[in-house]
Amino acid sequence: MTILSIETSCDETAVAITTKEAKNDLVKILSNVVASSLVLHSKTGGIIPDIAAREQLKFIVPVIKKTIKDAKVSIKDIDGIAVTVGPGLIGSLLIGIETAKTLAYIWKKPIIPVNHLLGHIYANFVQTNNYEPSTINFPALALIVSGGHTDLVLLKSHEAMAWLGGTLDDAAGEAFDKIGRLLNLPYPGGPSIEKASMQGIANRFIFPRPMIGSKDFNFSFSGLKAAVLREVLRLNHKLSNQQVSDISLAAQKSIIEVLVRKTIKAAKKYNAKSILLGGGVAANRKLKEEMRSQLSTLSPRGEAGNFQLHVPPAHLCTDNAAMIGAYALYNYKPASWKNITANPKLYFN
Ligand code: KG4
Ligand code: ZN
Q1: pTM of this prediction?
Q2: How confident is the model at residue 344 (pLDDT cuts 50, 70, 90)?
Q3: Backbone angles phi, psi at 174, to 5 degrees
């Protein structure tokens, strides 16, 4: 089966053509194109929804054309059209959805609505030239860490999922972005903080690890942002490059420690066989390293289990349409176009 997928939930206009390989049950990318209006948003230090939507309009047709050309497929080879229906910015979502509906109508193809958050999980099932995930065994524990969400989800199978917990306030990516802004680093904060932290000296600043010991699987990152703000105010907004790096290192460490501790705790509790990371923050190398290192300290047998860690390559952690196609290939549930609407607040149900 071959799917053309469209993802326009935020500032990326992404279209992909993916297909599922019978031999290994993994998703293969035939083409994957992402156009981003990020440069425009870095000027304003955050995403302006109207600008994002206008840019989506500008990019959508050229990106579709390039995707089809790159994949070297003809329209008749495409079995269905998958599209992100939420969560996201209403103006941006609508452009992808209306385009998908129009194409489905003209080409007479089924249309599959996809939750963007589940797409982030399914980036783990995508095979690329440099990344062929080993078989993902269930139950799998997924940590979704994006700009707007931080969630732990248990996948018992492709059909059965359970939401275990999420953030009570800021998402991990949002914390990176807000702290980046406090430190005057370029938007988005995540990659900027990761880069600045490489020059950081450990333990010059210590920030809280919010909710690290709580019994549930929820998160909270707004207190961390407030703690960084207090330091910035204490230093009278006059931070040397070294202090920016030291704060970046300390803040990143706090976020990562909380994410790793809670993910491993959930994986143990639910006897997960695999741990899947997804979302823009999963592109962070330290997060991957720390997760891997903490998992390696666990006993391979017994209570700790033997978790297989899966992390998609960075370009599939951040927003893309291949992950939307992957979800649709495993969960092929076409809907009537009349029932497909943008749902900016879509969550897990
Ligand atoms: O998944 P994503 O591309 O878009 C959303 O669905 O939100 O995630 C974007 C988020 C931003 O908050 C960005 O700062 C963060 O992912 N991010 C990172 C890194 N790359 C992107 N955070 C930490 N380290 C990174 N290397
Ligand atoms: Zn995303």
Answers
A1: 0.95
A2: very high
A3: -65, -40
